[in-house]
Design goal:
The structure is a homodimer of 468-residue chains. Chain A is an alpha/beta fold. The first copy, chain A, has a domain at 7-60 and 68-197 and 395-453: Response regulator (Rossmann fold). Chain A contains 15 helices and 18 strands. The first copy, chain A, has helices at residues 78-96, 117-129, 155-165, 198-211, 225-240, 257-269, 281-293, 305-308, 311-314, 320-323, 339-344, 352-362, 368-372, 399-418, 440-453; strands spanning 7-12, 17-20, 24-28, 33-39, 45-51, 54-57, 73-76, 106-112, 138-140, 146-150, 172-174, 191-193, 216-222, 244-251, 274-278, 300-303, 327-331, 460-464. In chain A, the strands form 4 sheets. Chain A has a 7-stranded mixed beta sheet, with helices on both faces. A 6-stranded mixed beta sheet of chain A has the order 14-13-15-16-17-18, sandwiched between helices. In chain A, helix 2 (117-129) packs parallel to helix 3 (155-165), helix 4 (198-211) packs across helix 5 (225-240) and helix 6 crosses helix 7. The radius of gyration of chain A is 23 Å and the shape is globular. Chains A and B meet through strand 2, strand 3, helix 2, strand 9 and helix 3 of A and strand 2, strand 3, helix 2, strand 9 and helix 3 of B. Strand 9 of chain A pairs antiparallel with strand 3 of chain B, so a sheet runs across the interface. Chains A, B: Residues 83-442 form the Receptor ligand binding region domain. Chains A, B: One of its GO terms (cellular component) is plasma membrane. Chains A, B: The chain crosses the membrane at residues 447-467. Chains A, B: InterPro entries: ANF_lig-bd_rcpt, GPCR_3, GPCR_3_Ca_sens_rcpt-rel, Peripla_BP_I.
Chain lengths: 468, 468
Amino acid sequence: MSKCVCLFFVIKISYLYKSTAAEGSCKLKAKFNLRGYKEVEKKTVVIGGMFPVHQRLTDTDSNTTIAPESSDCEGFNFRTFRWAQTMLFALNEINSRNDILPDTELGYVIYDSCFTISKAVEGTLTFLTGQDEAVPNYRCGDGPPLSALVGAGGSDLSIATARILGLYYFPQMSYASSCSVLESRFQYPTFLRTIPSDEHQSVAMAKLVLHFGWTWVGTIAAEDDYGKYGIKRFKEVVEEAGVCISFSETLPKIRNPEAIERIVQTVLDSTAKIIVVFSSDVDLSPLVGELLRNNVTNRTWIASEAWVTSAAISRHPDILPVLGGTIGFAVKRADIPGLKEHLLSVTPYNDTLTEEFWGIVFNCTMNYRQVLSGMRRCTGEEMMEKLSNTFTDVSQLRITYNVYKAVYAVAHALHNLEDCKPHSGPFENNTCADITKFEPWQVQHKLTVFFIFYFVISFITIMCFPFS
Amino acid sequence: MSKCVCLFFVIKISYLYKSTAAEGSCKLKAKFNLRGYKEVEKKTVVIGGMFPVHQRLTDTDSNTTIAPESSDCEGFNFRTFRWAQTMLFALNEINSRNDILPDTELGYVIYDSCFTISKAVEGTLTFLTGQDEAVPNYRCGDGPPLSALVGAGGSDLSIATARILGLYYFPQMSYASSCSVLESRFQYPTFLRTIPSDEHQSVAMAKLVLHFGWTWVGTIAAEDDYGKYGIKRFKEVVEEAGVCISFSETLPKIRNPEAIERIVQTVLDSTAKIIVVFSSDVDLSPLVGELLRNNVTNRTWIASEAWVTSAAISRHPDILPVLGGTIGFAVKRADIPGLKEHLLSVTPYNDTLTEEFWGIVFNCTMNYRQVLSGMRRCTGEEMMEKLSNTFTDVSQLRITYNVYKAVYAVAHALHNLEDCKPHSGPFENNTCADITKFEPWQVQHKLTVFFIFYFVISFITIMCFPFS
């Protein structure tokens, strides 16, 4: 944390009247309720980030006769919180290095997308404004220029944000959105990623099924683009080879116990013992609970990369008889020297995300009212080093490493943008871009060139579940 | 045209600097290239509209070293141009009536979405600003309040716009987006429509197949949410009843002759003679051309409502041997008294959309340069009455009637909003909304109530192709 201070902020924009020279009065149209990290003061360039730190929105009042409010989020996720902290770690590291952007300080604006498209769109519109308030088609204030967005998490979130960012030729560097449709340069002109496309994974899963000579399989897909496109491509390949599909089920995106029970019944009724699941761990979790309750054993599960290595799935008690022997393809594992120390150094002050995390792991609170009502007070002196949980576990860094690479890719592109000989630059009339005042499409140009010439996206490795 | 003058406008926003009192300088982030109609001067309330008048974007320069520009559109569509004109007709009619909004003049902002998600998102962001410039999270200027958006055309366009409009609790009333996922109040809280959900259509198509005892069918779906979800539900129902799927093909969204040839080859190779197609007419057209070239006869086609009544498909010469006998479900037909006269009264002046239409149907130009290069000059005296084309054909008003109903639904909601007894209103503390200064969620409340109590969405009727 040598050169960088994390400031927490909650944006809760009130209906606000302000005047502009050209337009008379402007009125903010909605209150967005966003949480995250921000540090832009005295920085040269700002990088955006978006991580699904919470798993869902809280229920809102369905009364249509009062002014609605932007939802809050719930379901704190230790794994994705580690991703967000990894972005902060990478930025600190780059800021302290002398070989990348030696004279340029990187700032950041990071939002929690709450695993929800609407929150991701709220974050994108607010981020594009450049400051705390959302004026999406304008860049307001005299702050440092925005360079790129690292995010937004799952494929359906990235598709929604890429559609808006693309209009502004604004680069997006994703670490976890593997859906094959995001390959389309026509639909998503500024989308890049540090995770391979599901085109490879779906075909590999199909070849796995064919390799073992399985000819009768069931499929389960999440109700989003990741699940739909992933399983569609898988089916195309296996059906062409003569494999028959016993059932095709879809996991609901919002809580629906009846649908989950119905899927378990289908699994039980079917004679297919091989079941292919294309889903995130968050969407799959309710089904795993129901499979455990029904003691559904004697099946072989083929897992997509989003859940095959997930602790949220493997930590279910008594999981082995149900999911033991599951196979799938995982994103390659890597080490990030220094990350463990960074994760252990987080403190619960001035930051409600870490405060919430702290309260959960140490079973205490920093909220005065909750202390009065009998909850144990956090002292802030609790020992992170003694913890052993998904957040501090750096033995299986996969998506985490993709986050790290994504931040470095943006930094390298900015470095190349800055490192430009006058009159020999890549832009019109051999001009260079000015690192203190550039256009997003200029970063996009550098990122694309960087990806073509220097970047090797990790191959996916085969994985057995539960992994050691 | 008694109370309303259609003004044409092209927004081509330049990079623009302006200062706001609170934020220092604001800079527009992108140039949007939007075409449409606008009339807001001296109006009380503004209704938005979005229609896919053109079929695709023009190719843009792929050079990444120069500043990119928002694309223009091409492929003028007579049918969807009729939809846009129907909205203008309905607004004129309402403005001249004394029983609906007697003291309130409705204005409009209508954009061409060019059948493309990116253009629809550009239009939505610009529309939300309220004026010609796009400051989406702000409502700028002292213009009349925005009430709702009628649009945006196909389901994938509506999904993209609904995700943004929903954040602002802004009502959207769709006339052609039948995709079942749009039912979700959680994902699309302010989306309503005057077309039934595909849930009914997919099940009806499945029952049709089962009714005739067909057990071996092929499926073709457009590469969008309409096609994907429509065919998915169809498959679920027929597969449960023991029908087998011979092949599942996907129609590309962008020009791809090889993919189309491959689909025709699959159709030729398959022994399945029953083929179910869930697609818009625009996306299906290239396949129909290729089927004709290969003289693919002896198949029975099951059509979704988006193409079963489309003149763009049925006007192909020699279509009968290939698609004769096609059956499907169509949106109910209706008459709109006075519409024919309105359509025949369009003039090519001050409006580049009608100017383009005029040039195409009369094979002339109003562009001075093109006249100099030898093209025939339009006199403006050409006789619309002598024309017989898809635009002026009012014998099969289906989606057109949905547009008409959508505009009336918004007008009725506004009427109910205005018609409110002081101290007996529906909002907090029994207050009423002010028709000159209301919030979008208040219109949404009225629209929802209106839909629940008064609106009966037309049932779909069975249709044989080519219809008489």
